[in-house]
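Subject: for your reference before the review

Hello V.,

The reviewers asked for a structural picture of the protein, and I figured it would be easier to keep everything in one thread rather than splitting it across files. Below is the amino acid sequence we used in the manuscript, unchanged from the supplementary table.
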Amino acid sequence: MPFFTANKIHDGRGWLPDNSVIEVADDGTIISIQTGPVAGAVSYDGILAPGFVNAHCHLELSHMKGVGAEHTGLIPFLKNIPLYRNDYTDEQKKTARHEGYKELVRNGVVAVGDISNTTDPMDLRAFDELHYHSFVEVLGFTEERAQLVYEHAVDKYNEFAQQKPGDKILKQSIVPHAPYSVSSALFKLIDGHSINSSVSVHNQECDDENMYFISKDGRVSELLQILGIDDSYFKPSGKPSLQTYMEWMSTGHTFILVHNTRSTQEDVQYAQHKMKDVYWCLCPNANLYIENKLPDIDMLIKEGVNICIGTDSLASNHRLSVLSELLTIKENFPHVGWDVLLRWATHNGACALQMQDTIGSIEPGKKPGIIHLSGIDGFEKQSVTRII
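And here is what came back from the structure prediction:
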């Protein structure tokens, strides 16, 4: 059985004592963590850590890499998705999402939370190299079509659920796209599908979203018109989007709130008080690509929330690399330590996807995968390599 050590080892929650050695079974299960030299242990320069968890990705949009210009703002960006996403053959889409999947694997990811509007990513789940949570995403803003839209989502969910797992975890849940694209009736139907599931939602990604719910101002109505949706029935709540839609959801879910670039301290405190299990998912490179703005990460840290990491899609990012996301955070918030960043990218992500019993931390009985990180101190080229 192999033994591994390094200059520093992060176990998913924090640094292990110096000179720690990880004992690993041939199938990747952690047997023990020992202190002191072990004869024959493989030693690495740099850092060892559990495999990364990409808590938010859109692999089925991989064929749209570079289609949209940067810094356009969310509403113009979203207009491009339905306009161009089908201007490709099925083979082009398949090739692109397969390459996206391989990129995740190369970049040290062991589990992905993947947004799916179709069942196309079933072929990716069959590769059995990543633990996989498919978020069956629902869009439907008109109240009268809520039941029909929900039933279509259930059909897709059932297709995913019938797929037999191999060595890796396969999970699925039905989730809303965003507050401005899902009616209150549809939110409630989604809520009732599985009361303990992980629910991912694009949250407060632009000012227009909050303006729409507060006063029905901003450009959300413009987007809905382009999508052929009549929003004349909608009455603003006078509150930000998060404080509106969370009234339609029960507390048993694990919530993954994605992007959060316009979330205020009041929003965060509201969510943390109302819901028992909330993860704030940061996709900083996508935020810069679309809005050229980052969330208030210092405020999130001050509020003591659970943070996890995603990459969003290749339509809004240049690469699918969790390490690249961490480096962007470090560049803009240099006081955030690597002990914290690695916890966000490993243990917290595993908890967000409800996979913490298997991955996310280096401890006996788990199979988290182990990655080798080098260069993150800034003195050489940064890299990540999966060693188990």
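For the response letter, the relevant points are probably these. Residues 191 and 250 are 7 Å apart (CA to CA). The chain has two domains: 1-50+361-388, 52-359.

Happy to draft the paragraph if you're swamped.

O.
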